Amino acid sequence: MATILAVDDSASMRQMVSFTLKGAGYTVVEAVDGVDALTKAKAQSFDCVVTDVNMPNKDGIALIKDLRALPNYKFTPMLMLTTESGMDKKQQGKEAGATGWIVKPFNPDQLLKTIKKVME
Amino acid sequence: MAIDMQQFHQVFFEESFEGLDAMESGLLNLDLGDVNAEDINTIFRAAHSIKGGSGTFGFSAVADFTHVMETLLDEMRDGRRQVTQAAINVLLGSVDCLRDMMQAIRGGNEINRHGVSQNQQALEDELESGAGSPGAPSAVAPASAAQALGVDSSIVGWTIAFSPHKHLLKTGNDPVRLFRELATLGDLSVAADLQGVPDLPDLDPEECHLSWRLSIASPVPVQAIEEIFDWVEDDCDLALQAVYARNRSASGESGATLPAAEPAPAAKVGPVLKPQSEAVKTGEPDDRKKAAAKASSSIRVDTGKIDALINMVGELVITQSMLSLVGEHFEIAKLDQLKNGLAQLERHTRELQESVMNIRMLPISFVFSRFPRLAHDISGKLGKKIELKLVGENTEVDKTVVELLSDPLVHLVRNSLDHGIEMPEVRRAAGKPETGTVILEAYHRGGNIVIEVRDDGKGLDKDMLRAKAIEKGLISADAILSDKQSYELIFMPGFSTAEKLTDISGRGVGMDVVRRNIQALGGNIEIISELGKGSTIAIHLPLTLAILDGQSIAVGDETYILPLGAIIESLNIKEERVNRVVGKGETFLLRGHYLPIIRLHEIFKVPHPKAMRLTDGLLVVVEGQGERYGLFVDDLLGQQQVVIKSLEANYRRIEGVSAATILGDGSVALILDIPGLVRLANQ
């Protein structure tokens, strides 16, 4: 089964994302910020990255930009978790190479539906 | 898949309270003259996380409230709005309000809606106060236009011209995925346009060269299609064309086909969000009750500590298997092996215990972090200039101690701020800097944690203290008091030194309670002060309340435990060094100091002590409340770590005894409390 990197500085959101994805059979690795995520992404290969945008130590947009520059992650689906008020963030995310976004607040079903969209 | 979101609530609350603390200290540290964007960003991020989490976990009232805060902070962050003291105060008030809301939700109580709406109004007033530019124009309006497009009943299908830009694949998107999704809407036909494909030598396999023409034979609303292309909107050329029913085109309206290639971006957001926030609202009251029922105390642990623990368990398992191997076919030749194994077992058990204790340890910053706010509020109220310095915030201490320490410390710091630090003009006249300093410091010393509240204020006036105590009838007029004893007067019930009562430090009923609370934690409190220079109040506390390094002592058939940290030395008594004063008891002369002798067997009325005469037993010199005493016992038995069992919880409070423990042979031993013993002996 596919392996997903879940990045969020909020432990509750991270747990929720991770729990939901694991429940659907994915293998999930958690990271607490962009720097942590980048280290983990270099150490192992992921089939998808789901990241929060607003984080200390490298935000989600910078993370996506850095990941896209790595040969392994050229075509990997990368999704941002963003709030409805963050329209300009979506734009910045797209420019950095994000595949798409999931709008907060979201429920586990919406998350899974979106993940399945890019993973099948 | 149905997932119980409540399992994440506890973590959400914990991180939100941490976030609120971070917001508070961030707001307090903002320097109005030189606002650092990253500082605002940190505050913004905390608000943003709380908003995101509360929306996701179904606390819509919190989400709505935080949204307004976030908007304000966002404008400050972008430099669209100036950071003013008024705005900071409103935000600080909002932090308090949010904290109350979350506490109410966690406790399963009603939110104080009146307070919330008042605070929200204050935020909105601040938002509208013109310091910022008008917010982004509402993007809701175009949605209705787009929706209008989607409900035309004469539409029977759509044709889509889709030309991805070359880099589309490099965003992780894939045309095939889009087609798969489109196919879920209705019968889909796909025709590829190969014109853009270059010759093989020029073909870059990582780029997208194809264009497509698609048609869906289904009267789906336009938003459904736009939603699918949402992510690639800027990475392709897209044209949607409605296909109308034949009778309609026959009536000459074919010219009215509706290209809708460039819809307003917000059009997609509206419909997606609505059903969800409704669901959230209906779910809330029920969720709250359940959350309250499940509320429990939890602790967040650094994973490094868990790893250390697992490592220790591994070692323990190895030792255990080695020991069982030795025991299986034991012969006397293996005795050394057995002894080694047991020594190893002892070491590992101790290390394991340390690891487990370590898990309960929290940095004292959990308590300290509330004080900058307190100092800010109080100095504002009193018109004093105060700088609060926190030192040793990362010093770790047991979770229980952290929780119980909070109130006494608040009291001490308030006292320093209120009574200790003088008004700026008084300080100037005394040749001191106008700004008073209060230092809150924590550090480890031996097996204890020491927390000091130091100020450079006016210090304690022992003559005044004494006069006051005599006036209140707390001491007799001819009492002889050392400096230390004079300062300790403030711990007496009903003692107040403030010339007028303030709403900050209360009415002097606190210090005795503070001392009692600290003593209940197995600690003590002492004061050092110099008139005109300032005061230091030091709290000494054991690192943990669960385990104690103890010295077993024997009196008659009883075994007692003395906290090892309290013992200075033990010695044999020489009769010629003992002095007896009628009515004042016995003292022992040790290096020029007279130690009061406390005979344990007398205090606890132990029958048949082995040593009745002082020369037959031992004198254990202990320290309590800064004074030394000699405890007369039969014998010393051994040192060991004992697990503390509360006597109060299982029986009742007994003077002179702090707790009980169970010894290796299964018998119960009482753990002695030195200050309590001294009080008993003085009676």
Description:
The complex is a heterodimer of chains A (120) and B (683). With 120 residues, chain A is of the alpha/beta class. Helices cover 45% and strands 22% of the residues of chain A. Chain A has a five-stranded parallel beta sheet, with helices on both faces. The radius of gyration of chain A is 13 Å and the shape is globular. The mean pLDDT of chain A is 89. Chain B is α+β, with helices and mostly antiparallel strands. In chain B, the strands form five sheets. A six-stranded mixed beta sheet of chain B has the order 14-18-19-17-16-15. Chain B has a five-stranded mixed beta sheet with strand order 6-8-9-11-10. Chain B has a five-stranded mixed beta sheet with strand order 20-12-13-22-21. In chain B, helix 4 (85-106) runs antiparallel to helix 5, helix 6 packs across helix 10 (266-294) and helix 14 (371-382) packs parallel to helix 15 (399-420). The model of chain B is unreliable at 132-150 and 248-295 (pLDDT under 50). Classes of the chains: A alpha/beta (120), B alpha+beta (683). At the A-B interface, helix 1, strand 4, helix 4, strand 5 and helix 5 of A face helix 1, helix 2, helix 3, helix 7 and helix 10 of B.
